[in-house]
Write a structure and sequence with these properties.
single chain; 756 residues; alpha/beta; Beta-Lactamase; Glucose Oxidase, domain 1; Enzyme I, Chain A, domain 2; eight-stranded mixed sheet; elongated; binds phosphoenolpyruvate; binds magnesium ion
């Protein structure tokens, strides 16, 4: 039997020697095409490279007219070469001229050749060019010849990506690899980041392409495949994965693919052709990616991307690469580009080097986005195709305000964004100066500006923002980013750290608010809920699972020993829930004092107003608790019957409208009447205009994201509260105004030069 792998191995060996020789790029390319032609017994071998203007330019040829090099060109999609580039698929033709896409380039003199084999030059699924061999005789190229040419194309892809060919490019033209590209997706967190791409699950750069000994390399591949399979089995048997639907399904698919004969066969074939195991994985992965780009069926795309992930895992396995190495090699202005990512994985990156996050998938509520927001980095999501279009180290801009990214931006765009960033920095400087100034209006009314938090990463913001304390500590976030229920000790440690960081400033801990859109992957409701927002969530859930609540209360009481403790219940609907929770708290207090634990110096219990039922029992509520806080996100969703996560309805109804502001005013009035402190801690508090409206209806303490404190304080210090009171009474009480409340409030601010 003929050893079909001998040819490619000899060729790859020759190419390796050529790569090491001190040649100029054109000389090297000329030699490469010469050797390919020789090895494949072809009369012609040509390389076309894709330029940024979507033109494929002939860069080197053996056999065609040498004068046509850098002159012959085809548009993407034009001719056989253009078709290969556009489809990322090989064409193997015994009579090229009969093909409907054939386009004749007279300057090349190629009319005498009948058979044609062209393969795309791929890197990470992107087409960088096309490599062609041609013969006079009418022949169909064998499968192993196609394979060999594809393997060779991979070496050329590395040369292009390494920038070797850039010097051959005529002035004013650019290779496609360097083409600027912009993507529009969704804004997941405001802010602008300029920096350099770091591919999460980075495509490891395989530098060692050719193997010395195929048999040895096959053994390495086999060993790594085995450990890969074992690690997947391992993950599948983990307790936190074992019961879970989606995550488990993905891993099951991985397991299936890791044992997929076709995949393994193609890897082995590439190794037999002379590649190292790593290069083989990369080659097969690249073919797969290219196919993925042209696939429209979402199910198949998903399956293909599982293969892609799997290939990344296998690469890391082969190269023994740890996450520590990756962090050490991070640029100081890293913008992480990922298909999707876990919250804990983001926390593995050093914060001081992160400038932004780009996700192909994700949602505003995904955990990684919650954490990114807490870390204060701009996030743009739903950026389809961002991963395959990016290379590690590419310059990139993330515009979290608009939900766009700009890869390899042109100089003027970059300059415009750099100016934006400088402008923001100046404004931040201004806000920083306000930090020490009193938090009061122009006419001397004090308004307490507190911040919302939920993770240890939030704590430095307490000092940086100048917040008066933490008005809402969302304890469920610790539960949401963990893979199992956090133990009592871990909860206590976090609460203690929070109180330490607060240095005596007030902190309001909200008991875990899970359910609704806040799901814990390791804790699922056994009953399917048709309307989870109206379902078994927050205090309803914790009162039914008192063990959960007791553990948390105990952790809070212990962490706050010798200090003040404020606890707040989410989603209270009826007053009996407060009484029930109070009983559990009292029992824990008794328990701790029996064992002579240091107890908090004072303990205050509050309720969130999120369910409209409380609006008709405000006085009783105010008497039943030590304080209340309006959760305007939920209260608005329930009053307006509008899902807070539904983007289709996002701007349909306005919280700054008469009915909602009246409801808020009733709450503020009831607080005053009963001398019960009232705050508001939903998103409404974080925009200067709506914060102004809140002050107008009587709120004197509001809690918001730390980044909002500066702008809100700037507004407050210019605000004449006396005027605003009168203005609100006039417009909110009786007669219907001819303008919407938002416009009236905006006009009020504009007339008085109040910065919004
Ligand atoms: C709210 O509902 O306004 C609130 C502050 O709680 P969360 O956003 O965590 O539901
Ligand atoms: Mg809420």
């Amino acid at each position: 039997m003929r050893d079909t792998a001998a040819g490619p191995r000899v060729l790859l060996k020759r190419l390796r020697e050529l790569m090491a020789e001190p040649l100029d790029p054109q000389g090297r390319l000329d030699r490469i095409v010469h050797h390919i032609a020789l090895n494949m017994v072809a009369e012609v071998c040509s390389l076309y490279v894709l330029r940024a203007d979507s033109v494929l330019e002939l860069y080197a040829t053996e056999g065609l007219n040498p004068g046509s090099v850098h002159h012959a060109q085809l548009r993407l999609g034009q001719g056989l070469v253009g078709t290969i580039a556009a489809s990322a698929r090989a064409l193997n033709l015994s009579e090229a001229q009969q093909h409907p896409a054939f386009a004749y380039l007279p300057e090349t003199g190629e009319e005498i050749y009948n058979s044609f084999l062209g393969v795309p030059v791929l890197r990470a699924g992107r087409t960088l060019g096309v490599l062609v061999v041609q013969n006079r005789t009418k022949r169909q190229y064998r499968e192993d010849e196609v394979e060999a040419l594809e393997t060779t194309a991979m070496v050329i892809a590395e040369m292009i990506a390494a920038g070797d060919l850039a010097r051959l490019t005529r002035p004013g033209l650019e290779l496609d690899l360097k083409r600027p590209a912009s993507f529009t997706g969704l804004s997941f967190n405001d802010g602008i980041g300029l920096g350099h791409v770091v591919l999460h699950e980075p495509r490891i750069v395989v530098t060692n392409l050719f193997n010395e000994d195929s048999e040895e390399e096959l053994r390495r591949l086999e060993a790594s495949l085995n450990s890969l399979r074992l690690s997947i089995d391992d993950m599948l048997s983990r307790r936190d994965v074992a019961f879970e639907g989606e995550h488990r399904a993905v891993l099951e698919a991985y397991r299936m693919f890791a044992n997929d004969r076709g995949w393994v066969r193609r890897l082995e074939e590439a190794v037999r052709n002379g590649l190292t195991a790593e290069a083989a994985v990369e080659k097969v992965q690249s073919d797969m990616r290219a196919r993925m780009l042209h696939m429209t069926d979402p199910y198949l795309r998903e399956r293909m991307s599982d293969f892609d992930d799997l290939a990344n895992r296998l690469l890391r396995q082969l190269m023994g690469r740890s996450s520590d190495d990756i962090a050490a090699a991070l640029p100081k202005d890293a913008i992480i580009v990922a298909r999707s990512m876990g919250a804990a994985e983001l926390l593995d990156y050093p914060r001081d080097k992160l400038r932004g996050l780009v996700l192909e998938d994700g949602a505003v509520t995904s955990h990684v986005v919650i954490v990114a927001r807490a870390m204060g980095i701009p996030v743009a999501g739903q950026m389809k195709g961002a991963v395959s279009m990016s290379e590690n180290g590419d310059p990139i801009i993330v515009d979290g305000d608009e939900g766009t990214i700009h890869l390899r931006p042109q100089a003027d765009l970059e300059a415009a964004y750099a100016e934006k960033v400088r402008f923001r920095a100046r404004r931040q400087e201004l806000y920083r100066e306000l930090r020490k100034k009193p938090s009061e209006s122009r006419d001397g009314v004090k308004v307490e500006l507190l911040m919302n938090a939920g993770l240890a990463v939030d704590l430095p913001q307490l000092a940086e923002s100048g917040a008066a304390g933490i008005g809402l500590f969302r304890t469920e976030l610790q539960f949401m980013v963990a893979s199992t229920f956090p133990r009592a000790e871990a909860q206590e440690r976090l609460y203690r750290d929070v109180l330490d960081a607060a240095q005596g400033r007030p902190v309001t801990f909200r008991t875990i608010d899970i359910g609704g859109d806040k799901v814990l992957p390791y804790f699922k409701n056994a009953v399917h809920e048709e309307n989870p927002a109206l379902g078994w969530r927050a205090v309803r859930l914790t009162l039914d699972r008192p063990g959960l609540l007791r553990t948390q209360i105990r952790a809070l009481l212990r962490a706050a020993g010798g200090r003040e403790l404020k606890i707040m219940l989410p989603m209270v609907t009826v007053l009996a829930e407060i009484a029930q929770a109070r009983e559990i708290i009292d029992r824990e207090v008794r328990h701790l004092s029996r064992f002579a634990h240091l107890l908090p110096t004072s303990l205050k219990l509050g309720a969130m107003i999120e369910v409209p039922s409380l609006l008709w029992q405000l006085d009783e509520l105010m008497q039943a608790v030590d304080f209340v806080s309006v959760g305007s996100n939920d209260l608005f969703q329930f009053i307006m019957a509008t899902d807070r996560g539904n983007t289709q309805l996002a701007d349909r109804f306005d919280p700054l409208s008469v009915p909602f502001l009246r409801a808020l005013k009733q709450i503020a009035d009831a607080g005053q009447r009963n001398q019960t402190p009232v705050t508001l801690c939903g998103e409404l508090a974080g925009r200067p205009l709506s914060a102004m409206a809140l002050i107008g209806v009587g709120f004197r303490a509001i809690s918001m994201s730390p980044a909002a404190i500066g702008p809100v304080k700037a507004m407050l210090r210019e605000l004449p509260v006396g005027d605003l009171d009168a203005f609100i009474s006039d417009n909110l009480a009786g007669h219907a105004a001819n303008l919407p409340m938002r416009a009236l409030l905006q006009g009020f601010a504009d007339d008085r030069g109040i910065p919004l």
